[in-house]
């Protein structure tokens, strides 16, 4: 790992950090294999003289085309700071749940022919394959034969096998001037082929990765772990998610922020009700809705009270593009690039702040948190 090179100024830290940073990778730190120059400058601000991070950091990506350790090593080289695989959170690996012991057809750039496969019990989509037609055919075969590839199609099935998708990015940014097709585009193809053949909508057992709240909840869990390992006693109250894609990075961060707001509101309502009841007055307390689907039991309750979205202009986002204000005019897929099962909400694609690049974003966050002063 490369030792960090420090610029002519340092940061005089006033206190322990009470916030954590969630970094997207493609379009924020790199474009394909090409580093974005601002990324190295940004991370010079985030490490001390010993090369240790001064705030908890997690890299959150939907891309799953290589192992965590390999990606961490690449980031170490690009950023000039030590990055361990523990800091690298692959959105699609956060939760496989009860299917982890079943026979799963997982497509991760897989294009080999199918020969004598046992019965498949679930399908997990990790990322767009090389040969789309081969993999589209294979998935349709599995779904319409109920996992028995030696059988003929059964288009009258009341339900198909469990299908989980881990990357919903319609587009992503590489070296090309325009965005490239992402796994979300592959999913659009699969959904339309399935409906064309069966007349029914394709159903997902789970949608993971950004913009799912589960991904941000797990990322926050990793942030808390880092803070505990460093002996930082201040609870992590704020998360800052830095990304280049309105429909994944910004939508997801804002969706998780809404979840945190609603969670706080429920706790506040319950606390007030308890106070009223304690004073001797009966109180009608609404039952708390289980929004977490087991998250908190597995990852512990979040300590964060907010998740702020920071949009950078080095990737998918075009600063000259204007979003329509009226949601009724935004039903067409040409406007809403999010997945079919996520509704369009103008508030969820409105970033908290917009920064020129990731270096400007880190500078802005430090100022917002009054975390340090330049000398």
CATH H-level superfamily title of the largest domain: HAD superfamily/HAD-like
Total discrete domains: 2
Give the overall average pLDDT.
Answer: 79
Low-confidence stretches: 1-12, 92-101, 281-292, 327-334
* CATH C-level of the largest domain: Alpha Beta
CATH architecture of the largest domain: 3-Layer(aba) Sandwich
Q: What class would the helix/strand composition place it in?
A: alpha/beta
Please report the total strand number as a whole number.
16
The name CATH uses for the topology of the largest domain is Rossmann fold
Q: What general outline do the C-alpha atoms trace?
A: globular
- Assign a percent range to the helix content: 25-40%
Strand content: 15-25%
Order of helices and strands: EEEEHEHEEEHEEEHEHEHHEEHE
Oligomeric assembly: single chain
Strand line-up of the largest beta sheet: 6-5-2-13-14-15
Largest sheet: 6 strands, parallel
Q: Ends: how far apart?
A: 28 Å
Our count of helices gives 8
Radius of gyration, taken over Cα atoms and rounded to an integer in Å: 22 Å
Protein name: Cat eye syndrome critical region protein 5 homolog
InterPro entries: CDP-alcohol_PTase-I, HAD-like_sf, HAD-SF_hydro_IIA, HAD-SF_hydro_IIA_CECR5, HAD_sf
């Amino acid at each position: 790992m490369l030792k960090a090179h420090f610029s002519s100024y340092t940061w005089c830290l006033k206190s322990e950090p009470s916030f954590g940073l969630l970094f997207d990778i493609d379009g924020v730190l790199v474009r394909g294999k090409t580093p974005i120059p601002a990324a190295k400058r940004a991370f010079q601000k985030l490490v001390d003289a010993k090369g240790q991070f001064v705030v908890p950091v997690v890299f959150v990506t939907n891309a799953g085309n290589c192992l965590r350790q390999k990606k961490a090593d690449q980031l170490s080289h690009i950023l000039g700071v030590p990055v361990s695989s523990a800091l690298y959170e692959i959105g699609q690996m956060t939760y496989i749940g009860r299917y982890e012991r079943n026979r799963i057809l997982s497509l991760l750039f897989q294009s080999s022919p199918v020969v004598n496969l046992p019965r498949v019990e679930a399908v997990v989509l990790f990322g767009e394959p090389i040969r789309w037609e081969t993999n589209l055919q294979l998935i349709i075969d599995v779904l319409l034969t109920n996992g028995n590839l030696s059988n003929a199609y059964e288009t009258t099935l009341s339900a198909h096998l469990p299908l989980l998708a881990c990357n919903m990015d319609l587009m992503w940014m590489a070296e090309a001037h325009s965005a490239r097709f992402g796994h979300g585009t592959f999913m659009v193809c699969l959904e339309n082929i399935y409906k064309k053949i069966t007349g029914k909508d394709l159903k997902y057992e789970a949608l993971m990765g950004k913009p799912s709240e589960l991904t941000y909840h797990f990322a926050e869990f990793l942030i808390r772990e880092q803070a505990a390992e460093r002996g930082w006693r201040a609870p992590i109250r704020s998360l800052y998610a830095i990304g280049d894609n309105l429909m994944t990075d910004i939508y997801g961060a804002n969706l998780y922020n809404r979840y945190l707001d609603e969670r706080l509101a429920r706790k506040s309502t319950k606390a007030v009700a308890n106070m009223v009841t304690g004073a001797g007055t009966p109180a009608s307390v609404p039952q708390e809705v289980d929004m977490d689907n087991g998250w908190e039991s597995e990852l512990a309750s979040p300590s964060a009270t907010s998740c702020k979205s920071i949009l950078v202009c080095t990737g998918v986002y075009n600063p000259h593009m204007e979003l329509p204000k009226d949601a009724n005019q935004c039903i067409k897929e040409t406007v809403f690039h999010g997945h079919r099962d996520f509704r369009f909400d103008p508030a969820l694609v409105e970033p908290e702040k917009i920064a020129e690049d990731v270096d400007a974003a880190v500078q802005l966050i430090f100022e917002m948190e009054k975390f340090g002063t330049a000398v």
